[in-house]
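Revision sheet: structure tokens.
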Amino acid sequence: MDRLPALSVELELCGAGKVLVDAATTASLHDSESDCELCPENTFNADVGTSSALHNELSDCTVCPPGMPGSLDRKVCGVCIKGSGISTEVGASGGCEICKAGYFSDIEDSSPCQPCSPGAFITDDGVSASAHEKCEECNPGSHANALSGASDCNLCTIGKYQPSSSSTSCLDCDLGKYGETEGLTKCEECNPGSHANALSGASACNLCAIGKYQPSSSSTSCLDCDLGKYGETEGLTKCEECNPGSHANALSGASDCNLCTIGKYQPSSSSTSCLDCDLGKYGDTEGLTR
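Predicted:
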């Protein structure tokens, strides 16, 4: 049987910023590049893999000079990649850290992360540097809080709206309009036959009550039925005339008409009272027109 040719395979070295300190005691710790560990925070290893002797001890990671942070990849000192910055928290080592929620860094330097401007946000909390290279705008129908460094956007609440992006608050629905759901970019007009309350920020429209009407949209109140007219149901856009032989009460806002009583009559519509039968005439039933 022919022998297979021997394969010539070279062992790979850990790259810059990484070391592998296990002394070949466990094969499973030497079978993948992921076994190489990052140098400790605020240290670096610039060797790109020229010698195993430069990647087999933690001491191969050099402490960064004072005032110069260690990069996230531990390859250099003095520059933080985009999406990271110098930690300003008490007790921090001064190395580069991925920005926390609501903060970003769009340049490579050694400064702290900056807060998102009002109306913008970042939800990622120190997990992915690429998520912190720029802040996102809050969409129409939502807002961030009025302070910088927001971590999320909030939907406009019921009765409010926001047509623009990058907003820090929502607007009350205008008079005569309403918002019955969250996240609105505009409020709806109250239909004829209904009204919103007289204050802005209405969450619903109310039907005109019995004895009232409203012919227009976007109204904040309903009108009393005129003298001689009535409204017997809710939500009317116009009131009905009382027929001849009947009358509404003498006040506006009537809910029904009353038949003329015995001995009285009314030949006209839209009346507020009935007339006494003339001399020499009589009316022995209700609702007479003459």
